[in-house]
Each structure stands twice: as structure tokens, then as C-alpha cells.
Amino acid sequence: MLKDAMTGFELYRPTDLDTAIDILTRHRGNAWVLAGGYDSLDWFKERVRTPGVVVDLEGIEELRGIREIDGGGLEIGATTTLTDLERHPQVRGRFGLLADAARRVASPQIRNAGTLGGNVCQDTRCWYYRYGVSCYRAGGNTCYAAAPEAMNREHAIYGASRCVAVSPSDTAPALVALDAEMVVRSARGERVIEAGDFFMEPSVDIRRMTVLEPGDVLVSIRLPGRWAGADFRFEKVADRATWDFALVSVASAFRMDGATIADARIVCGAVQCVPRRLRSVERRVAGQTRTEEVALAAGALAVADAEPLAFNGYKVPLVQNLVKRAVLGA
Amino acid sequence: MNPPHSPPTTVLLPETRANWSRRDFIKGVIASGATVSGLSYFGAGCAQSLPAQAGGVERLLSLTVNGQTRRVDVLPNETLATTLRYKLGLTGTKLGCDRAECGACTVLIDDVTHYACSTLTHRVRDREITTVEGVAAADGTLHPVQQAFIDELAPQCGFCTPGQVMSAVALLRANPSPTREEARQALAGNLCRCGAYDHYLNGVMRAARGA
Ligand SMILES: Cc1cc2nc3c(=O)[nH]c(=O)nc-3n(C[C@H](O)[C@H](O)[C@H](O)COP(=O)(O)OP(=O)(O)OC[C@H]3O[C@@H](n4cnc5c(N)ncnc54)[C@H](O)[C@@H]3O)c2cc1C
Ligand code: FES
Ligand code: FES
Q1: Which of A2, A241, A243 has its CB closest to that of B38?
Q2: Closest to A32 (Cα-Cα) out of A2, A57, A63
Q3: How far apart are CA B109 and CA B65, in angstroms?
Q4: Which chain A residues touch B26 with a CB distance below 8 Å?
Q5: How far is A173 from B158, CA to CA, in rounded Å?
Q6: Is the CB of A249 under 6 A from ligand 1?
Q7: What is the pLDDT, as a whole number, of residue B38?
């Protein structure tokens, strides 16, 4: 009863980043980056992904850990586990939004190995796609989840472009709300990408969830000091408190000037293929107080352009109410 | 519940033992069965997965399991659950879903809970692995968690029990007097199809009081 018979691969466990990038570059197109493995092994076991070379980042010391950076921010190594993240005193103290989001991922055992880098780079969980069918995202020419009879309770209510899959990550909306920066390295050098530009719209490239290309390694994630200690709220609605992916999540950050909202970030997960930043709502509440009336208007505005599918209409009032609660702060 | 003594360190094949207990026999069948079916399953994988150049992992490795060092030949794409159950005969670690969705395969790696079904064995070559076979005392006295689970009638069918034991043991090592809510969080990654959750929590709280 060997159910986990993944097809064979060469496994590399380099101890420095340059070697990892070198192997990935040499085997470009046939190589897979492995961090905690909690997205990867599912793909391998289903034999939907069968890379010939797997590069395990776990042994690379420079990719792990959390350190202070100038301006009161933090830099988080990509292979820092979600457990280390949620327990870190500075993350909890100054960027509680990210700690709260990390704590809501999957289960304790998965957080003990699953990494922040893997969490933001993970592929979508659309079950048609995961099953290995030839949909748009897999290079085919149809979307099974948007077909008239399709089961699409988990799918997108915004911004679908052929593909209606959603961004599954709990930490991604928190990182977008915190104006995080993603540090990426490849054989060509290092580049820094804003979290808001890191996730890939299907209208741009339907085959990828992030801007990362083969040979790229996400090295770290920087949280600028700008949002440290703001008024945060992370809410995730899922069928069960453990294991299940978000049906809707809302990450919000408010900077107050007395009773007035000086600046706000409100970002939804699991409603679109990328974390959905509600810019119009942010603008609407800036300069206002956190009253019932403002919150109601914010909730209505949040869903003004929602386009639910046959079975996910329930997500519309969910988003509306979660945004309202975020603005009210209660 | 498994007998508290450590199982043999080598895979049992018929010619290595003259006197067979029923349990040894079952383990022998499991081990040799895995060798055969493993080969047919991994056929292409075996040949392909030998490291072609420096940097790839060596297949022969030493694992420290329940305080014993054991040499074992491990494929690059092999999970810890497979190695433990089918190569080391440690069948106390259960495989339920094989997809990180149930917790039956929970083991400790350096005192932290992990799903063995979703951990590549090559990742744990320098770590201390503890399975449910390794939590009782050397003289056979059950771990307080095991005893408390019996006293509270926690297991029903028992399939999830080894995993529940491991999560509870890890919790009490890190936090000897947890609140019930902390215990609930610590055991949240262990599904129980019999729904005996409250009984397991009663057991954890009883073990914590006794410790
Ligand atoms: C049962 C189950 C429940 C889950 N529930 C949730 C949930 O509720 N919320 C949630 O957000 N997620 C959930 N997940 C998804 C996911 O497995 C975890 O979130 C985990 O954080 C992924 O991280 P990892 O390090 O294990 O990923 P890996 O599988 O190692 O990597 C994931 C992907 O990212 C790539 N990658 C990883 N690190 C890097 C890097 N540094 N540079 C470049 N590419 C990289 C890998 O190549 C791979 O494609 C769940 C998974 C399972 C199996
Ligand atoms: S068998 Fe590993 S979690 Fe179910
Ligand atoms: S006791 Fe039967 S699954 Fe938990």
C-alpha cells in the first residue's frame, strides 16, 4: 500500500543560495524549488507535476530567520516556518496582522514545516486544475470551474479572466496590506518587487500565480516600518477552523489620527486570482471616522463590482460584512 | 496501543529468524511485501533518481529513531511514513490520508510535530525522530499521556490514537501545564473520525495534572 509513490527525481540539498540557483539554472524547465513541501508533495503524489530535479532550500541558512531592518521594519527569510513567524515577538508586537494570518494557515503540523515563502508562492487550489485536467491554466482551452454545471463554491467573485481560480494564501493579503517587498534572486541578480505586484493576474499570464520565473528564488520578505503597530484585523472564514482554505479572508490595517482614519489598507483573500486590494474602499474611508454609516458604505462599495458564479454568491455578503467589521474595528 | 519495547532494528526476512511470533511474522510480511511492491512501484524512479552529480543526496543514510541509529536505503522521493512503516517496521505510525489532512502519521522531529506522510525522509537525516513506539519508558511503563488516554477511554477505533499521543507528548514537553484551549489548539491537526476529541482532551489534561 505505497500510495505516496511519487515519480523519481534527483534531490539536491544545497547549503548555500548560489549553489541552489546554479542547480535551478542548469536544470531550468525540469527543476522544482522545495521549501516545506506542503504544496509540492501533493502535486508530486498526484503525479500532475513530475520534475526531474528537486532543490530543497531547507539547508540554506541565509534563507531562514527574522531580522530588524532600518526604519523599524523586519526582514523575514523565505524559509522561515509559519510557526516561527506566528510566535516571533517582534512580528506579533509590531506586525500582528501577519502573525494572525500565519496562525490561521492549515494545521499546527503544517505550520511547523510550511514556510512563508511557500505560502505566498503556492499554486491555486481550484480542484479541477489540481486534478490535472487540461484547463486554461494548465495550457488547455476551457475553464471547467466556470462551466454552467460546475461546482464553483470556492471560486472567484472578482476579476476573472478565463480562469476563475482564487489566491489560496492566508499570508498574501496580510503582506499586501503591509506594503511588503519581495526580494527575489536568480542567476541574473537580485530584484525587489512590491507584494501588490508579486501576484500574477490571469489576464497577464494564466500559467503562473506569481511573477517568479524558473530559476528565481524568493529570498526574503521585507516589512517596512510604515505600518508597524497600526490597528490590524485579520478575519478568515472557512468551513473548519483547521486545515481548510479561506472562503473569504480580509486583512486590514488602519493608521489613526485621533478618531480619524489617516490611512487604510483593506485586502481580500480567496475572492480573486490575486489578493484583492480594495483601493476604492481605502479612499472612501480615509479622513472619516469609524462609524456605522462609513462602515456600511465601505461594505457596499467593496462588493459593487462583484460577479459571483453559480455557487459562490454567498461570498458577496461575506466580503461586505467582513469589510464593514474591519472599518468599524469591532 | 503498541507494545512499549523497541522493535528490531533490521527488516525481518524469513531466514533471519527461527522463532516467529505472530507480530514478527506480520512485520516480516509487511517489510518484504514493501520491498517487492516498492520495487515495482519505483522501478523507473530508482534508476532515474541516483544522483548524477555532486550535490544530490546519498541514498544510504543513518536515521536516529527513538534513540537508535539505523542505517537505511532511502529513495530521494520517499516519505518518512514509508521509511518508518515499510523499511524499519515501525507500524505504529499510521497512514490515513497521505495528504497532510488527518494527522494519523504525526511523529516528532526534534520534539516538534510533523506529518510523516508529507516529510521527505532525506530531510530528517540529522534529526531526532520519535514515533509512538518510542514514548513509553524502557521498562515498558506507558507514557503519562498513553496511560491517561486509557484512563479516560479516549480511543474508540484507535486509528488516530498514535498521532494524538504524539501531539499531546509534544505539547506537554513544551508546556507541561496547558489550558484546555491550548491543548485543543495543539491537537487541532489530528482528525478523529470517531469524534472522540473531548475524551482525548480529557486525557491530555489528566496527563498534565499527573506530570
Ligand atoms: C491540508 C492542507 C491545508 C492547507 N491549508 C492552508 C490554509 O488554510 N491556508 C493557506 O494559506 N495555505 C494552506 N495550505 C497550503 C500550503 O501548503 C501551506 O500554506 C504552506 O505554507 C506552503 O508552504 P511550503 O513551504 O510547505 O510550500 P512548498 O510546497 O515547499 O512550496 C510551494 C510552492 O512555492 C514554491 N516555493 C517555495 N518556496 C520558494 C522560494 N523561496 N522561492 C521560489 N519558489 C518557492 C515551490 O516551488 C512550490 O511551487 C494547505 C496545505 C495543505 C496540504
Ligand atoms: S496520513 Fe499524514 S496527515 Fe493523514
Ligand atoms: S478513535 Fe477512531 S479515529 Fe479517533
Answers
A1: A2
A2: A57
A3: 9
A4: none
A5: 40
A6: no
A7: 39
The C-alpha cell that represents B182 in the structure block: 491550548
Question: Phi first, then psi: what are they for A231, rounded to 5°?
Answer: -85, 105
| pLDDT tens string B165-206 | 999 999 999 999 999 999 999 999 999 999 999 999 999 999
Closest CA to A274 of A179, A183, A173, A205: A173
Cell readout for B152 is 479516560
How high is the pLDDT of residue A5? 79
Judge whether A270 and A194 are in contact, CB under 8 Å: no
CB A318 within 8 A of CB A239: no
For residue A260, the number of C-alpha atoms closer than 13 Å in the C-beta half-sphere is 6
Distance (angstroms) between ligand 3 centre and the Cα of A145 equals 35
Give mean pLDDT, residues B141-162: 98
Measured in Å, how far apart are chain A's first and last C-alpha atoms?
51
Give the tens place of pLDDT for each residue, A271-303.
999 999 999 999 999 999 999 999 999 999 999
Determine the pLDDT at residue A199. 98
pLDDT tens digits for A99-143? 999 999 999 999 999 999 999 999 999 999 999 999 999 999 999
- Return all residues near B172 (Cβ < 8 A) that are at least 6 apart: B144, B145, B178, B204, B207, B208, B211
- Cβ A107–B117 below 8 Å, yes or no? no
B113:A109 CB<8 A: yes
What domains, with CATH codes, occur in chain B? 60-134 (3.10.20.30), 144-209 (1.10.150.120)
| Residue B45: all three cell numbers together | 524512479
Q: Which residues of B touch A (CB under 8 A)?
A: 34, 37-38, 41-42, 44-49, 51-52, 55-57, 75-77, 79, 81-82, 86, 95, 98-101, 103, 106, 112-115, 117-120, 122-123, 167, 185-186, 188-189
A113 inside 8 A of chain B by CB: yes
Residue B70, strand partner residues: B63
User: What is the ipTM score, two decimals?
Assistant: 0.96
**Helices B197-210 and B161-174, interaxial angle, to 10°?**
40
CA distance B60 to A176: 44
What are the pLDDT digits (tens) for A46-76? 999 999 999 999 999 999 999 999 999 999 9
β-pair type (A217-223, A181-186): antiparallel
B101/A243 CB distance under 8 A = yes
Neighbours of A90 (CB within 10 A): 15
**Position A143, amino acid:** C
Do B114 and A1 make contact, defined as CB atoms within 8 angstroms? no
